[in-house]
Design brief:
It is a single chain. Helix 5 packs across helix 6. Helix content is 35%, strand content 27%. It has 6 helices and 8 strands. The chain starts with a helix and ends in a 6-residue tail after the last strand. The protein is α+β, with helices and mostly antiparallel strands.
């Protein structure tokens, strides 16, 4: 079953797929949250809890906006509207991507396609569905696929990275969207090297 599920992943592609996925790259990213959480993390060393919603589009993980402080504070204000935070704030983080399942990398999207082919053979039906901002199918496939790939290749993915086009076109007939974003889901908290509070957050 595993052999048939790999499909387009030829022997060469499989070898190449596992090379250079340990990203020697450090990024600055931002987490929208309540001011009280920012204080606890910076003063007491409290750790962030991973999000485990069944609609999280990059699967289970601690979510950050890559180089997106404005998006993070906007999200914190959205959480306030939903009565989930009292005082919107932003927590900055320095993240080493490590073994990154990067959905902007065609090696990773090929592996995700293979994981999905196996998923449809073993997952209970009916499968969850994606509906607007509720990415239940994507979440389920990623949460299934990453451990499956770990068993196949012996590599544990520490972070997941993806781009999501969102919002209206920036001008007529444009394919560029107003509020597109790159997000990181950190599955291994050791990839978070440290936290900080942006100066412009009062």
């Amino acid at each position: 079953r595993n052999r048939s599920a790999l499909g387009k992943l030829t022997s060469l592609a499989r070898l190449q797929a596992m090379r250079h996925l340990d990203y020697q790259r450090t990024i600055i990213a931002y987490h929208g949250c309540d001011e009280s959480l920012v204080t606890r993390v910076l003063k007491t060393g409290e750790t962030l809890e991973p999000s485990e919603n069944d609609y999280d589009w990059l699967g289970t993980g601690i979510y950050f906006w890559e180089f997106g402080p404005d998006r993070a504070i906007a999200w914190a204000h959205e959480l306030k509207k939903r009565l989930r935070v009292k005082k919107p704030s932003v927590l900055g983080a320095v993240i080493q991507l490590g073994n990154c399942f990067d959905l902007l990398d065609t090696r990773c999207t090929a592996m995700l396609q293979a994981a999905h082919r196996n998923y449809v053979c073993v997952a209970p039906k009916p499968f969850p569905a994606n509906e607007k901002f509720m990415h239940r199918l994507d979440c389920d496939v990623i949460n299934y696929g990453l451990p499956w790939l770990t068993k196949l290749f012996g590599i544990k993915f520490q972070t997941v990275r993806g781009v999501f086009q969102e919002g209206t076109p920036v001008f007529e007939d444009s394919d560029i969207r107003e509020t597109s974003r790159i997000q990181i889901a950190v599955r291994d908290p050791s990839c978070i090297l440290g936290y900080f509070k942006p100066r412009w957050i009062k």
